[in-house]
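Need a sequence for this fold. Nothing fancy.
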């Protein structure tokens, strides 16, 4: 009975940390790669033969929903529901996100990096074996994609991309002393997802265009499957500045050591791109 209660006390905390990992990493990490790829598409689709460099800050107001399954028989599955405010309210310490893309003619190179920490209090059932605690989640990752413009005319452009996305995730779960002595769990994981990407841009006028971006990755090498779709309407303010607004959905399936994560994120987004 003691072992069973201990299991039940720890599981909800672990589930919350897994959910926080999904929310943060998907909101801030994979969004960087998608938007950097999207940013490389200027409103016009005429060939660009010279060297160009693009950076894009953005805001994705996304919510998350899905399920997390665990190897614990008493809590085999837990629903995950959170909004963007839940993530922002739990940010702790230093957070950095940046992305850039260099293009030369038909070829491009995308790079981005992210590091951040999320921290929140943890509740334990009935506060008997453990009197609550604190969870801390840290992640560092980058994405590298090579791109190639496969088709282009005066009104349309099609880009293909391939690369990889490494992840490093560290979790610290500290449980306060109750009937049992205080304890700290430090699970961590790292993996690399291969990624294939495609982007189509259609010019709608002198200053307007529409873009659709999609990628798929994982393939069992790291995640079992990760994919996303992003559509934006773009307005070119000048030769170097573009405004973007649209909608995005991202899905992640990751299974390891009996813990299955299947979550999706969806929501509107806005961005501004600077091209040099």
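Here you go.
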């Amino acid at each position: 009975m003691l072992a069973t209660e201990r299991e039940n006390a720890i599981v909800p905390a672990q589930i919350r940390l897994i959910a926080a990992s999904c929310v943060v990493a998907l909101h801030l990490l994979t969004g960087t790669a998608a938007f950097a790829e999207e940013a490389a598409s200027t409103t016009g689709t005429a060939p660009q033969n010279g060297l160009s460099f693009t950076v894009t800050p953005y805001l994705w107001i996304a919510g998350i929903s899905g399920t997390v399954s665990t190897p614990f028989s008493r809590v085999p599955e837990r629903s995950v529901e959170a909004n963007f405010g839940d993530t922002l309210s739990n940010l702790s310490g230093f957070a950095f996100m940046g992305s850039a893309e260099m293009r030369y003619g038909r070829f491009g190179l995308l790079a981005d990096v992210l590091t951040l920490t999320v921290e929140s209090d943890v509740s334990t059932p009935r506060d008997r074996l453990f009197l609550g605690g604190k969870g801390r989640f840290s992640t560092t990752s980058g994405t590298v994609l090579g791109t190639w413009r496969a088709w282009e005319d005066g009104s349309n452009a099609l880009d293909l991309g391939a690369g990889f996305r490494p992840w490093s995730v560290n979790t610290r779960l500290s449980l306060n002393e109750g009937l049992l002595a205080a304890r700290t769990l430090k699970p961590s994981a790292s993996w690399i997802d291969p990624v294939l990407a495609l982007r189509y841009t259609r010019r709608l006028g002198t200053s307007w265009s529409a873009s659709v971006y999609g990628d798929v990755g994982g393939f069992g090498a790291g995640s079992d499957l990760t994919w996303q779709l992003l559509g934006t309407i773009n307005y070119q303010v000048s030769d170097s500045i573009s405004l973007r607004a649209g909608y995005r959905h991202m899905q992640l399936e990751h299974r390891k050591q009996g813990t299955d994560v299947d979550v999706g994120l969806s929501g509107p987004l806005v961005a501004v791109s600077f091209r040099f």
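For context: The longest strand covers residues 130-152.
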